[in-house]
Amino acid sequence: MPLSVTAYRVLVALVLLLSVLTAIVLGRVHGAPVAVGPFDHYRCSTGDRSGGEGVFRVLSTTNYLAQTFADHLCASDRIAARFEAVDISWQPREQLTTRQLARQHFHLLWNRQRVLKGLLSNYDRFYDSVQKTPDYSVYWLSNGDTPRLTAGYFAGKRVGLIQDSQSQSSFQQPMGQLQAAGITLSDRQLHFFADRRALYQAFAEGRIDLMSGIKWVGEQEVPPERRLAIAENLPTGRWFLSRSLAADVEFRCALLAQMDVFKGLYAHIDPTFEPAHGECPP
């Protein structure tokens, strides 16, 4: 029996309504926010070899090679004998607290002695210096022309910096040089980035005209005609190990062996630099 016009219209309306409801449900499923972890750390597991002492916490000043370093630590049998996981952070230096140092929250950290001493005058009761990192020079790096320290040159330039007021190379030194030269940048000219990787990407994509740092941007050396010296022979800092672990010589040596992943970075900073291994075999 054929449907009446009214029944047909009702049926069509029901089909359309069902389609709309289905689309809404599917849209909610696919559009639901996914919980993600913070973007300033990376964690890996040491597997079934763990000695069960929890997480080995590392604090670096940069995300460059951070994941690689953590993965090397997780692959080390000696590290795994004590810890079930490795967590490396690259939060800004200004977020490090006195309480974290006193409690040895981080087992290993890369920083400058003056920063640690400013936070905790007797920091050396809690941490041992295990390796010095090379001194370096800081430059203005240009995306196309030859940088000059004049107000005319910097006028209208988009300048990229790291959002870390404790950074020598990407905040303190460049801003200090501009202030000493009487050069003022507008807020629109200053572009701050969460980490060096984001800064490098913006530079490579031409979203900023200038940035400060060492003469290498990732794996590319910026030619001399596109850089201007800001400061020379600045300390990058040292690696410090918690005294709760420093007495374990085998652990210390295993740690220093894995830190060789930074040799390429150190060579970019100073080609003559050779990281020391103390009493451990190189």
Describe it.
This protein is an alpha/beta fold and 282 residues long. The chain has two domains: 41-133 and 236-269, Periplasmic binding protein-like II (D-Maltodextrin-Binding Protein, domain 2, 3-Layer(aba) Sandwich); 136-235, Periplasmic binding protein-like II (D-Maltodextrin-Binding Protein, domain 2, 3-Layer(aba) Sandwich), CATH 3.40.190.10. It has helices spanning 5-31, 66-75, 77-80, 98-102, 113-119, 151-154, 168-180, 196-204, 243-246, 249-258, 263-269, and strands spanning 41-45, 55-59, 85-89, 108-111, 127-132, 135-142, 159-162, 190-193, 210-213, 216-217, 220-221, 227-235, 238-242. The strands form three sheets. The protein has a six-stranded mixed beta sheet with strand order 1-3-2-4-13-5, sandwiched between helices. Strands 8-7-9-6-12 form a five-stranded mixed beta sheet, with helices on both faces. Strands 10-11 form a two-stranded antiparallel ribbon. It is elongated and about 60 Å long. Residues 1-38 have low confidence and may be disordered.
